[in-house]
């Protein structure tokens, strides 16, 4: 087993904790649930428009501390404090916004919250943010679509953009004299050979778990890779029922499960457990976003680090699925212009145009895409990526990403994605046919307004 996945940017914050804070898509929007709000740093007493607060999951506090300190040094007399939620960030934040007691200025959200938060006037349009048009023009393809509310106005800036990456254990492949698979048929053939020869009992360790909707994300990635396109069109109509690539993907998953080519307990294994199967050299293939590949390539976290390599996704198109998280302005902020300065610092270019946080925290420390072309192509960022990735394969894969589009802003999307994971698991277990599962998901999406 590989050791725990400590973040290189903050040794006391695990990658799993960071994921829980920034990709907690499984939390259901609503007023139920409990959580503890912890305030760290300076608090906004509502007295001065110079006193501002950033709202986030408490697990990432150590990651953001140097960036809060940098802001307070370089943006004085503005003063940035922090408001952190100890657990169930999205549920607690939704409660606070609905109750009108959100005292913070800038907050983040995952996919599926922008529509309801903007309609309820809990978050503010960024139409008056200086330089917004320039930021939007610099964004990677598809990013801007995820930032717009039902009224067409921009309500958010990118926090990060993730993409599912395919990774292989080169030492395992060398034992069967094989290169990374270029097609899913080749992948299946290699997996069978690796198992038959005792090189790996479970050659593939995917994240087929409900946590953070990971099984849904991995399904979207494999469908895109083989020419199935996005699982939603720009109007929000599902591309599921009758999609031959979606059906073929599920049939392959059923084969992998029935032949024991994936761990039998993978549906109930937690995130760290799945991570350690591949990081510990027990499997030959896996798939996860950039920040996790960083961990797999770190010998302090992964005993197979020297053998792990990111490669292009197998499939006809070699595409993958992308997703993100976003910064927003609280509607009740008392320092509107100053809060705009903060959101531009966290999710934009900042006053000096350097993209300090997107470049140094998101792209360099975490290995994620910033959502901006200029940052993701910056020589310093590419040099940092080269420490853990095959940069040509990584940038080639990032250029072949397929987002789900505006559907990810919809209020019903988190519920749909949660349901999708359960349905996909039932199909793999043989409790439903592939066509039944795809139709059920398509019908649910089609019934939403």
UniProtKB/TrEMBL annotation:
InterPro entries: Bact_solute-bd_prot1, SBP, TAT_signal. Its main location: other. Keywords: Signal, Transport. Coiled coil: none annotated. GO terms for cellular component: cell envelope. It comes from the Bacteria. It is found in: Cell envelope. Belongs to the bacterial solute-binding protein 1 family. This is ABC-type glycerol-3-phosphate transport system substrate-binding protein. It comes from Actinomadura luteofluorescens.
């Amino acid at each position: 087993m590989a050791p725990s996945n400590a973040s290189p940017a903050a040794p006391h914050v695990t990658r799993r904790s960071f994921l829980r804070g920034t990709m907690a898509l499984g939390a259901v929007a609503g007023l139920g649930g409990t959580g503890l709000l912890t305030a760290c740093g300076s608090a906004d007493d509502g007295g001065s428009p110079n006193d501002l607060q950033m709202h986030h999951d408490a697990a990432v506090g150590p990651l953001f501390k140097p960036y809060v300190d940098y802001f307070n040094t370089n943006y004085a007399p503005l003063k940035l404090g922090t408001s952190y939620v100890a657990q169930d960030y999205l549920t607690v934040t939704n409660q606070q916004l609905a109750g009108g007691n959100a005292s913070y200025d800038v907050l983040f959200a995952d996919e599926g919250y922008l529509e309801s938060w903007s309609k309820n006037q809990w978050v503010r349009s960024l139409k008056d943010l200086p330089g917004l048009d320039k930021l939007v023009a610099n964004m990677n393809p598809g990013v801007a679509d995820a930032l717009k509310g039902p009224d067409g106005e921009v309500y958010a800036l990118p926090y990060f953009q993730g993409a599912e990456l395919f990774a292989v254990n080169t030492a395992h492949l060398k034992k069967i004299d094989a290169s990374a698979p270029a097609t899913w048929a080749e992948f299946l053939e290699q997996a069978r050979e690796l198992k038959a020869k005792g090189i790996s009992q479970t050659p593939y360790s995917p994240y087929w778990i409900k946590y953070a909707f990971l099984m849904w994300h991995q399904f979207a990635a494999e469908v895109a890779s083989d020419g199935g396109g996005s699982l939603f069109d720009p109007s929000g109509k599902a591309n599921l029922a009758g999609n031959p690539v979606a059906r073929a993907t599920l049939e392959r998953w059923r084969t992998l499960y029935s032949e024991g080519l994936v761990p039998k307990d993978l549906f109930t294994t937690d995130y760290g457990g799945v991570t350690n199967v591949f990081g510990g050299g027990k499997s030959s293939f896996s798939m996860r976003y950039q920040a996790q590949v960083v961990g797999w390539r770190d010998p302090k976290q992964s005993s197979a680090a020297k053998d792990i390599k990111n490669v292009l996704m197998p499939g006809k198109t070699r595409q993958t699925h992308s997703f993100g998280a976003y910064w927003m302005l609280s509607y009740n902020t008392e320092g509107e212009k100053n809060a705009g300065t903060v959101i531009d610092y966290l999710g934009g270019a900042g006053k000096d145009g350097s993209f300090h946080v997107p470049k140094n925290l998101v792209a360099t420390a975490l290995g994620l895409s910033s959502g901006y072309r200029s940052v993701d192509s910056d020589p310093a960022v590419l040099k940092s990526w080269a420490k853990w990735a095959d940069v040509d394969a990584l940038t080639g894969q990032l250029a072949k990403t397929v987002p789900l589009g505006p559907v990810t802003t919809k209020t019903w999307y988190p519920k749909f994605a949660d349901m999708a994971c359960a349905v996909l698991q039932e199909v793999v277990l043989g409790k439903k046919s592939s066509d039944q599962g795809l139709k059920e998901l398509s019908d649910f999406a089609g019934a939403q307004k």
